[in-house]
Every structure is written in C-alpha cells, then in structure tokens.
C-alpha cells in the first residue's frame, strides 16, 4: 500500500498536477497542527473544567462538538480516562479506524500490522517500546476502534500544572498521549 501511494504521488508530481511542497505542507498541518491540536484542546478543557470533563466522559461526541470538532471519522467518540491505577491504549485491530477530527492523520505505526496485533497480545511490551513503563499494579485496558466507534484517551494531568491555563495545558498534550502510547510530561523548568 505504501509503495502504491508513493508511486501515485510521484506520478502526480511528475505530471505537474501536485506541488510536492504543498503536499508536504498539507500533511504537516494534519499530522502536527490541526488534528492533534484539536484533541489537545479537548484534553486541556477537561483538565480545567470538571463539568466539561463529566460531559466528555458521558457523551464524548457531543462534548467534543461543543468545541467545534467533529465530522467524518469523529461521529461516534468515546473518551477513556487514564488514572493512577488504569492506563488505556487505543488500537484498531481490523484496519486503522482513527478519530481524524481530534488527532489528525494517523501515524504510520498505528496502521501497521505489528502494532495492531501486539497492542492486544502484549500491550505492556508495546508501551515499553514507546517508553511507557508502568508499575505492575496498573491495569492496562486496550480499546479496539471500529468503523462505528473511535476512542480518545484522556491522559492523566501531570503534577505541577495546577496554575497553568488551558492554552499552556494544551501545549503539553501529544497525539501519542491521546492514543495511550505516551504519558503527558510536566512542563520543563526554565533555567
């Protein structure tokens, strides 16, 4: 599939139909700016506003829509919350169902067969490969997205962020933390 996409892209560029710089800019926008920033805004609002968090956990689709995010592949959302005793991990074992409106483009590894199978068989090992080593008493829950339902992880709010506003909190949140393969780090101390 990857080779076919590259071949098609090369052909479109060669024929002058697509500008490679424009294509790179579009991909960068969806990978790093629009989608993940939307999800980070959702997480930051939940961390800052307890009533929003309650609505988000009860009816994620409606709560996310309150912030203006929704659309194709974001119609039926469920948000699962990480706690000190539960860590959630999202996968789509059948294909690559993914909540584009809040996370942007799916990372290549998310669509790969090894991630899709190992996330279910050995979630602790997969998390360790991403640098997330959890204590033995933390339960790992794996959520399998489908064409009907997509999941978003509400990561744990890091300690030391109580004085931060929503914008500063959103800057801490990564796409990977909303999939569950990363934890949110506290802000770095300035020298």
Q: Strands, helices and their partners?
A:
Blueprint (H helix, E strand, L loop, with lengths): L1 H13 L5 H29 L1 H9 L1 H7 L10 E5 L4 E6 L8 H4 L4 H4 L1 H9 L1 H7 L9 E6 L5 E5 L11 H7 L2 H5 L12
Parallel strand pairs: 1-4, 2-3
Account of the protein in words:
This protein has 191 residues and is mainly alpha-helical. It has a single domain (2-179), classed as Nitrile hydratase alpha /Thiocyanate hydrolase gamma (Nitrile Hydratase, Chain A), CATH 3.90.330.10. It has 10 helices and 4 strands, in the order H-H-H-H-E-E-H-H-H-H-E-E-H-H. It has helices spanning 2-14, 20-48, 50-58, 60-66, 100-103, 108-111, 113-121, 123-129, 166-172, 175-179, and strands spanning 77-81, 86-91, 139-144, 150-154. The strands form 2 sheets. Strands 1-4 form a two-stranded parallel ribbon. A two-stranded parallel sheet has the order 2-3. Helix 2 crosses helix 9 (166-172) and helix 7 crosses helix 8. The longest helix has 29 residues, at 20-48.
Which key phrases capture this entry?
191 residues, mainly alpha, Nitrile Hydratase, Chain A, two-stranded parallel ribbon, 10 helices, 4 strands, 49% helix
């Amino acid at each position: 599939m990857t080779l076919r996409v590259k071949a098609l892209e090369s052909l479109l560029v060669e024929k002058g139909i697509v500008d490679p710089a424009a294509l790179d800019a579009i991909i960068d926008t969806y990978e790093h700016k629009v989608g993940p920033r939307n999800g980070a805004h959702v997480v930051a609002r939940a961390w800052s506003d307890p009533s929003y968090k309650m609505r988000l956990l009860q009816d994620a689709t409606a709560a996310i829509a309150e912030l203006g995010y929704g659309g194709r592949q974001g119609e039926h959302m469920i948000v699962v919350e990480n706690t000190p005793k539960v860590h959630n991990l999202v996968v789509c074992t059948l294909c690559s169902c993914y909540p584009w409106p809040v996370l942007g483009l799916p990372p290549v590894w998310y669509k790969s067969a090894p991630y899709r199978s190992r996330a279910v068989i050995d979630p602790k090992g997969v998390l360790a490969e991403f640098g997330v080593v959890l204590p033995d008493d933390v339960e790992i829950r794996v959520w399998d997205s489908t064409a009907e339902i997509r999941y978003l992880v509400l990561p744990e709010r890091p300690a030391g962020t109580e004085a931060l506003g929503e914008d500063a909190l959103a800057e801490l949140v990564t796409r990977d933390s909303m999939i569950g393969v990363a934890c949110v780090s506290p802000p770095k101390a300035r020298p």
